[in-house]
Write a structure and sequence with these properties.
- The chain is α/β, with parallel strands linked by helices.
- It folds into 3 domains: 2-62, no CATH class; 93-340, Aspartate Aminotransferase, domain 2, CATH 3.40.640.10; 342-446, Aspartate Aminotransferase, domain 1 (Alpha-Beta Complex).
- Helices cover 40% and strands 12% of the residues.
- It is built from 16 helices and 14 strands.
- It has helices at 2-10, 16-22, 31-41, 93-99, 109-126, 140-151, 165-176, 194-204, 227-233, 253-256, 282-289, 302-308, 324-340, 342-362, 390-401, 428-446; strands at residues 82-83, 133-137, 157-162, 180-185, 208-212, 214-215, 220-221, 237-241, 260-262, 275-280, 379-383, 403-404, 406-407, 416-420.
- A 7-stranded mixed β-sheet has the order 2-10-9-8-5-3-4, with helices on both faces. The protein has a 3-stranded antiparallel β-sheet with strand order 11-14-13, covered by helices on one side.
- Helix 10 links the parallel strand 8 (237-241) and strand 9 (260-262).
- The longest helix is centred in the C-terminal third of the chain and has 21 residues, at 342-362.
- The chain is globular, with a radius of gyration of 29 Å.
- The structure holds pyridoxal-5'-phosphate (PLP).
- Belongs to the class-V pyridoxal-phosphate-dependent aminotransferase family.
- Pfam families: Aminotran_5.
Amino acid sequence: MLPGLLRRTVSLRSNLRTALQFQQVKNTTSCRNLSTVCCIVGTTFDPSFTPINQKPKRTMATYSITPPSQELLKPIHVPPKTLMGPGPSNASDRVLKASALPILGHLHPEFCKVMDDIKAGLQYAFQTKNPVTFAISGTGHAGMEAALMNIIERGEVFMSAVKGLWGERAADLADRLGADVRRISKPLGEVFSLDDIEKGLKEHKPSALYLCHSESSSGILQPLEGMGPLCKKYNCILIVDTVASLGGVPFFLDELDIDLVYSGSQKVLSAPPGTAPITFGPRAIEKIKNRKTRVPSFYFDFEGLANYWGCDEGPRRYHHTAPINSMYALRESLAFLAEEGLEKFWARHKECAELLYKGVEDMGLKMLVPNKDCRLPCVNTVCVPEGVDWKAVTVYVMSKYSIEISGGLGASAGKVWRIGLMGENATKENVERVLKALKEGIESVKAGGK
Ligand SMILES: Cc1ncc(COP(=O)(O)O)c(C=O)c1O
């Protein structure tokens, strides 16, 4: 009956409701049909309208709709900023363009090829032959959760080497997993020696140890030489966090003999936040295979992820929908790393950091970490001088130069500025810009300006 109805209603489009009532629309004409007609004739459908002889029905359409935010209807505004805090760092146009490519299905062969490229790129970045090397869908915290959830079982002893916020964070996650958490600690700005770690291993006998390579809260680079074999000797799985260092400092995973390492995309790799590289060595895999209980997370489950990433014998199966476009971006950032080459990448970060140290010293300021060899070149901690409002300086630097530098985190809060030199942003020009902005900012704040 609709075509006939339509012909006659078009002529009465100014008052559709009357038109339809005039035609004695039968009860069989559903509200959905009426709505369709209204769309065709270009008038609005009144949901409270009930055809004659039909009882009013309460449907979804009878609820009033809360209007959307007016702000949402304006164009998105994203000002350009130079991100020289502890992360994220700026992404190159190449990486951003990659993330705007068409979406593919999560098991399409072309996307599986992107995943394979990422695996190879990460094996290069980590300097490992570990076949189980891929990217978790999530930020650095997701990498941390994936590592801990797969390795630790309830009641097991987990030791966290705490020298800043990230060691505490690992202890917190392990505690949530029901582990028997033990801490060994170092004061702000100091690193663990092999002796410190061995003492802890002897005393606590942990089944896993967390060690942060790049303690970005204090600007510490933890030496890792000898830590892998030491943990092996005590039958302990070594988990290393390289979120703020992967690509920025020399790192040879296989030589170091580390069991499990994870990182983040948004720091030295200069990809958008949201993907977390991870690699599992043979001892980590054996520990996971011998678990007495199931991994308490589906999303981070080793087996499902390893299969989806094509790291086992079986055909790839759906595990979750990977953030497709973020993976394109990660792929391109790894291609960029491979093109420039790790040695040049590392050297560029070191040169920029040296330039920064000199500029900081020339200003009469001090770096938090006294030993240069233990400074993380990617996130540099500059001591805030007595009586200077650190926050006001960061506000000045942002408002005048659109440069982000950040304050401390955890125990370093209020004591340092953190200046990131990572990936795209690790250039001499940026170091000069940030030094100039910092100097001006301090002078302005000291002079009473904001
Ligand atoms: C060393 C370290 N680990 C873990 C994280 C957590 O990463 P995300 O913020 O990407 O979750 C960070 C972030 O700054 C970090 O620096």
